[in-house]
Write a structure and sequence with these properties.
By secondary structure, the chain is an alpha/beta fold. The protein is 32% helix and 15% strand. The protein has 7 helices and 6 strands. Strands 2-1-3-6-4-5 form a 6-stranded mixed sheet. Strand 4, helix 5 and strand 5 form a beta-alpha-beta unit. Helix 4 crosses helix 5. The longest helix is centred in the middle third of the chain and has 17 residues.
Length: 207
């Protein structure tokens, strides 16, 4: 078991927290994390793009002009892709971009992301997050104690309603339930604050 400092909301050490070696000893693999992030972003694509093919264009039921004698090229329909306002050839159509990867690779990428954040000093473990009145200024003061003023990810298992209300209006803060922990959100954050009650769930999933 690897030990890490456990802080309070004032960034004062109040103890230590232990995390299973199978997580903390996993090497940082940028190529694996990139592979999983690519999969995540593909799954988030709407895929609603669409162009008009010949079947979707209205009209065009008869020849626009006679076959011979006009001096123009033969034409059977105004739907032709050669015509202005005609169909699009091989244009994009609605589709699902999502795909899956082996669960083991996704887990290992998550371990890699956690250790990458630990190595660069942007991962912090706190015993709990509490606010008195649920005011945004209280949340801002907590973040200042950790020098967290840009792209902050707070990972929790259970949060008081006052805490959620205090943090949700801060544009650079994302509150993420531990069940939704993922590689993209981890590596896209400059500071990751993990509440102690989320650690057991992280170990349950990754060990």
């Amino acid at each position: 078991m690897a030990s890490f400092e456990l802080k309070n909301v004032k960034n004062e050490k109040v103890g230590e927290v232990e995390i299973n070696d199978s997580i903390t000893s996993y090497p940082v693999k940028p190529e694996l994390m990139h592979e999983v992030v690519t999969m995540q972003l593909a799954g988030r694509r709407a895929g609603t793009h669409a162009t008009l093919n010949r079947a979707k264009i209205t009209g065009g039921g008869k020849k626009p002009y006679r076959q011979k004698g006009t001096g123009r090229a033969r034409a059977g329909t105004i739907k032709s892709p050669l015509w202005r306002g005609g169909a699009t050839i091989f244009g994009p159509q609605p589709r699902d971009y999502s795909y899956s990867m082996p669960k083991k690779k996704v887990k290992n990428a998550l371990k890699s992301a956690i250790n990458a954040k630990q190595e660069d000093g942007s991962l912090v473990f706190v015993d709990e997050i509490t606010v008195k009145d649920g005011k945004t200024k209280e949340a801002v003061e907590i973040l200042k104690n950790f020098d967290a003023n840009r792209k902050v990810l707070v990972v929790y298992k259970n949060l008081d309603e006052k805490v959620v209300r205090a943090f949700r209006n801060i544009p650079y803060v994302d509150l993420l339930n531990v069940n939704g922990l993922n590689v993209y959100d981890l590596i896209n954050s400059r500071k990751v604050i993990v509440v102690k009650d989320a650690i057991d769930r992280i170990e349950e999933v990754l060990v």
